[in-house]
Amino acid sequence: MNVSEAIHTRRAVRAYQSRSVEPAVVEALLTAAVQAPSAMNAQPWRFVVVQDTARLKRYSDIAKQLLLARDHGDNKAASYRDLLAAPEFNIFYDASTLIVLCAGERTPFSDADAWLAAANLMLAACEAGLGTCCIGFALGVLNTPEVKQELRIPPEGVAIAPVILGYPAAPSPIVPRAAPRIWSWLGR
Ligand SMILES: Cc1cc2nc3c(=O)[nH]c(=O)nc-3n(C[C@H](O)[C@H](O)[C@H](O)COP(=O)(O)O)c2cc1C
Fold first, then answer.
1. pLDDT in tens, 112-143
2. What is the rounded distance in angstroms from the CA atom of residue 109 to the CA atom of residue 77?
3. Residue 162: enclosing H or E segment and its boundaries?
4. Fewer C-beta within 10 Å: the chain N or C terminus?
5. Could you give all domains of the chain from N- to C-terminal order, each with its CATH number?
């Protein structure tokens, strides 16, 4: 698979086999992640890997409570309430592995750097036949002081990009994209 094929075939995977991902495979993906560009080559990323499904289920339950307690005040968020209220819904989709791309501290570019590294990781995973999905729902729980301590994220550290990883249970549907909406292209 070349880069273009990975870009065009990667899709969010939300159903996984129970088989865990081998440590060498995770390490190869982290090595791909750190090839990303970063502002002033700061390479601010730090990684947390969780391969403990009971722990992920516990974090999912806390995340759902936190999200439901928030007053979203918009229809899109309200549409998630039934999903979040369902006891069987796991925000990590029972994936065997969660990789959290963190930064040592929040800076003006730390989020951009972490997400660029996450994109590298997801494309490399796609090439390796693995599925991934960003889990924005997890950001609240991962940044609570208690969970940060459990994950050995220092107080000044920040969890930025949670990505689940695993062997897909089934092919993911292709989610279509709108054509690029170009606001301007001066001098063409
Ligand atoms: C920042 C970010 C946060 C996301 N959070 C979630 C999430 O919490 N749960 C989820 O199921 N998908 C999440 N997604 C996945 C998007 O829903 C998905 O990428 C989008 O629908 C397009 O589908 P595709 O990736 O299959 O092309 C997130 C994606 C991004 C970029």
1. 999 999 999 999 999 999 999 999 999 999 99
2. 27
3. strand 158-166
4. C
5. 15-52+95-166 (3.40.109.10)
Question: Pocket around ligand 1: residues whose beta carbon is below 6 Å from it?
Answer: 11-12, 14, 133-137, 172, 175
Mutate to test the pocket of ligand 1, among 8, 135, 139 (most ligand atoms within 8 A of CB): 135
- C-alpha separations of 75 from 78, 81, 85, 138, 185 in Å: 5, 10, 16, 20, 34
Entry pTM: 0.95
Biggest distance spanned by C-alpha atoms of the chain = 56
Q: Is there a contact between 134 and 162 (Cβ–Cβ < 8 Å)?
A: yes
Amino acid at 108: P
Residues contacting residue 106 through CB under 8 Å, at least 6 positions apart: 158
Expressed in angstroms and rounded, the spacing between residue 133 Cα and the centre of ligand 1 is: 6
